[in-house]
């Protein structure tokens, strides 16, 4: 016989969940104490948003869930933004939320809240465990649901007296539900669309088919049929680099995405959704698929995307077609004054083998895909749900799941401050994470949005809400205060030296790269006018402009 906390941890381990990102409180102390008697790895974070983002990054690389341990509804609420990103990424995760003892809840203590209501925003499965005897069964079901197609977030709420009570029994792993392949009818219909002569077709692929096996299958179809390959704006995990098929990402700016999709008669969608604008803009479309374009979906989220893609390859090909693979090619090292594009160039020139990039560089990273296309094979993890503050926590989880793979965290200065506490966990766990801050001293993306939405009379008071220059944020001092060695760079030469040092020595390192904003002054003023006119000019010219602005 064991208490509820021991039964819970052992059930997690029985199901392969052996890592827990935590920010515990009083109600979780029995879970914390139980860690000593198990092989569960406990990773302490200083903020719940770091724990939830780290569990997301872990799942993206490990292809299995981690657990989070959070304190009551307030702790869950603090982690909500990165749980939102994880839900949009469709990754498996188990949230363990401690609650007041059942008999204590009647007193409406200061930290009493409706945890289930908070959890409903991001969880597909929610349960408050009523008795110690039921802990193992409930935990096993939570894990099974999280790992079934489509992967999702399960939240198990554990009252303190259920946790400390005796009578808990661990449960063995329960097999997750694996989705069926698309029907033969759907596969044949889409195969017919792809091989149809005289029709211009694009394939938009996402989620589970963006690693090597899926990319090669999709590229074989594209090479056989002439279809154009795209992937979603913010992929969960995209394998790319030399020796893999190159896939063009749909642009964040809706006007640019419209240029990419213009002229296609058919859009075949595999494990993602139709392109839409991130926000509404006056007089502009929200749904970005051209009116004359027919949409064809291969699978639902509940179905087997990779297996269905292989069936589609067989339906399209009469004989074997080789995929088109990216050749190895690196840019030269940059020189002169530093800007965001040169930071991306240096990363492409020096990036180590088998790296993982956690990309939250925002506007500063717009040249990164072009600069790293032919670099050694790597994974890119992106901001799937758009809630900023993901990049550093995802880097934490990815580094732990990667078991020694080098991780590069690319951060805007504003986004970094949302979860800067991640640096402490990176230092504590001695993770091989190189953090690069694109320090343009502003919320640069919002300066663009201020112009795009057509807001009138944006004067000094309005613009001050997007300015991070006063006082200047000292990222070197912040990093060193949390145990991470750091350096500030202002020239390309300094950056090259810092990157070589960071990539040659294992462990954490932060580079504060001071760069001008990609869009400021006349360039910023002109951008809305260019975007507004781009769909009214000849397609070749529009595509050339798009390639210049967002390659």
Describe the 3D structure:
The chain is α/β, with parallel strands linked by helices and about 550 residues long. Strands 11-16-15-17-18-20-19 form a seven-stranded mixed beta sheet, with helices on both faces. It folds into three domains: about 1-170, Rossmann fold (3-Layer(aba) Sandwich); about 185-315, TPP-binding domain (Rossmann fold, 3-Layer(aba) Sandwich), CATH 3.40.50; about 340-520, Thiamin diphosphate (ThDP)-binding fold, Pyr/PP domains (Rossmann fold, 3-Layer(aba) Sandwich). α9 (about 185-195) packs across α12 (about 305-315), α10 (about 210-225) runs parallel beside α12 (about 305-315) and α13 (about 340-350) packs parallel to α21. The model has no long low-confidence stretch (mean pLDDT about 95). It contains 23 helices and 20 strands. β2, α2 and β3 form a beta-alpha-beta unit.
Question: What is the CATH first-level class name of the largest domain?
Answer: Alpha Beta
- In CATH, the homologous superfamily of the largest domain goes by the name Thiamin diphosphate (ThDP)-binding fold, Pyr/PP domains
- What is the name of the CATH architecture of the largest domain? 3-Layer(aba) Sandwich
Low-confidence residue ranges: none
| SS element count, helices | 23
User: What's the story with the biggest beta sheet?
Assistant: 7 strands, mixed
Averaged pLDDT: 93
What is the total number of structural domains? 3
CATH topology of the largest domain: Rossmann fold
Which strand order spans the largest sheet, edge to edge or round the barrel?
Answer: 11-16-15-17-18-20-19
Distance between the termini: 61 Å
Strand content: 15-25%
Number of strands: 20
Q: What share of residues is helical?
A: 25-40%
- Rg result: 24 Å
């Amino acid at each position: 016989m064991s208490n509820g906390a021991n039964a819970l941890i052992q059930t997690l381990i029985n199901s392969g969940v052996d890592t827990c990102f935590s920010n515990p409180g009083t109600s979780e102390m029995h879970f914390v104490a139980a860690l000593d008697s198990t092989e569960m790895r406990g990773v302490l974070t200083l903020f719940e948003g770091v724990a939830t983002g780290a569990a997301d990054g872990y799942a993206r690389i490990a292809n299995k869930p981690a657990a989070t341990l959070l304190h009551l509804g307030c702790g869950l609420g603090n982690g909500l933004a990165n749980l939102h990103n994880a839900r949009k990424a469709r990754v498996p995760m188990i949230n363990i939320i401690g609650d007041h003892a059942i008999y204590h809840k009647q007193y409406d203590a200061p930290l009493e809240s409706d945890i289930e209501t908070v959890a409903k925003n991001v969880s597909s499965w929610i349960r408050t465990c009523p008795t110690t005897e039921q802990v193992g069964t409930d935990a096993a079901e939570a894990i099974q649901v999280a790992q079934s197609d489509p992967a999702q977030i399960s939240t198990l709420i554990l009252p303190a007296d259920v946790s400390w009570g005796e009578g808990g029994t661990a449960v063995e792993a329960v097999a997750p539900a694996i989705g069926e392949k698309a029907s033969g009818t759907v596969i044949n219909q889409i195969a017919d669309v792809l091989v149809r002569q005289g029709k211009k077709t694009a394939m938009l692929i996402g989620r589970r088919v963006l690693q090597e096996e899926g990319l090669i299958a999709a590229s074989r179809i594209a090479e056989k049929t002439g279809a154009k390959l795209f992937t979603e704006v913010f992929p969960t995990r995209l394998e790319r680099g030399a020796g893999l098929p190159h896939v063009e990402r749909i642009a964040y700016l809706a006007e640019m995405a419209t240029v990419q999709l213009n002229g296609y008669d058919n859009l075949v969608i595999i494990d993602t959704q139709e392109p839409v604008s991130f926000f509404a803009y006056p007089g502009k479309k929200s749904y970005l698929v051209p009116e004359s374009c027919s949409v064809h979906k291969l699978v639902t989220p509940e179905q087997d995307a990779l297996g269905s893609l292989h069936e589609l390859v067989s339906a399209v090909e009469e004989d074997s077609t080789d995929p088109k693979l990216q050749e190895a090619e690196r840019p030269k090292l940059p020189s002169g004054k530093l800007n965001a594009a040169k930071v991306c160039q240096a990363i492409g020139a020096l990036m180590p083998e088998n790296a993982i990039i956690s990309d939250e560089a925002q506007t500063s990273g717009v040249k990164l895909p072009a600069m790293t296309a032919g670099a050694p094979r790597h994974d890119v993890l992106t901001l799937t749900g758009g809630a900023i503050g993901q990049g550093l926590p995802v880097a934490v989880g990815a580094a732990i799941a990667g078991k020694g793979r080098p991780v590069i965290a690319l951060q805007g200065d504003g986004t970094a401050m949302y979860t800067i506490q991640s640096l402490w966990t990176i230092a504590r766990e001695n993770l091989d994470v190189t953090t690069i801050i694109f320090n343009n001293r502003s919320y640069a993306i919002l300066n663009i949005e201020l112009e795009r939405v057509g807001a009138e009379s944006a004067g000094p008071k309005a613009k001050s809400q997007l300015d991070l220059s006063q006082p200047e944020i000292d990222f070197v001092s912040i990093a060193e205060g949390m145990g991470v060695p750091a350096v500030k760079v202002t020239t390309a030469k300094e950056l090259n030296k810092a990157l070589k040092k960071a990539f040659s020595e294992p462990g954490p390192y932060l580079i504060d790269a001071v760069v001008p904003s990609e869009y400021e002054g006349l360039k910023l003023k002109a951008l809305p006018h260019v975007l507004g006119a781009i769909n009214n000019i000849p397609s070749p010219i529009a595509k050339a402009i798009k390639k210049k602005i967002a390659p």
